[in-house]
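Entry:
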Amino acid sequence: MKKLLALICSPRKPSNSELFAKAVAKELGSDWNLELVRLVEWKIFPCRACYKCLFNSCPQKDDMSALLEHIANADALIIAAPTYFLGPNARLKTFLDRGLMFYSLLDKLWGKPMLGVVTAGIKGMEGYSKLVLDGAIKIMGGRLLGTVVVFGAFPGEAVMGVENREKIRKAAEALISNRPIEEESEIRCPVCGGDSFRFGSNGFVKCLRCSNEGNWSIENGRLRMDIAVGEHRLFLSYEEAQKHADWLRGMKERFLEVRHQLKPVIQEFAGVGQTIVPPSKTEESREVSE
């Protein structure tokens, strides 16, 4: 039996994110077993940017390592997040900020079928949520089967109606076949397949998924993208992902080489500004003194 793990990034219970994942699991049939991770219930601390996880294990005493083991042992992954103010819920970002830990499990994560689900209360107001979900799966080394955008404000609406039921069917079909969902957009990055771009002057264009750059033009009334592989290759192949991990590990040695040059710069700004102490810290200090 195959294991489908659903990473639910909504604080609601039940949420449209969770209900959609469950609906997809039901569509898969008895050959699949669904396991749910509600991120709100897991202790995931913010990344300290110490880079220790690239060499040994993360010093944080939380649930992140256990969560990554569950993801590594699953046959497929769904990441489902609601839209909050035009972006995905912050629980997802906290998880992704610990992404340096992905490299320790790259062999198990690379090529794993992964599906993104974005829910939004108002049609057309998903903002940049899909871009984040697409990027999250690529950064993890997964095989991006697509990110489904589902509209429904109240719990249950995401699995109601002809349009949403069709999205459930296509999501399940993608997981079973391990083939990406066919997208409506005809304009895609030729490097990574992304569909979000930043346009500049003189025909400049940058893919917001893979960060590679190029030029755009109009040919026969159609938009043409000429984006080439540049320096940003971190998730284009397993070998490039490993190279990026090695580059990150090398940053420790580079820092040791230049830290004496950086110290005077840091000291120059040491006394600039006044830090406002949050009320919670003031209360903690008062309780300790009493």
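Strands lie at 2-8, 32-38, 76-84, 87-88, 113-120, 143-151, 197-199, 204-207, 213-219, 222-227.
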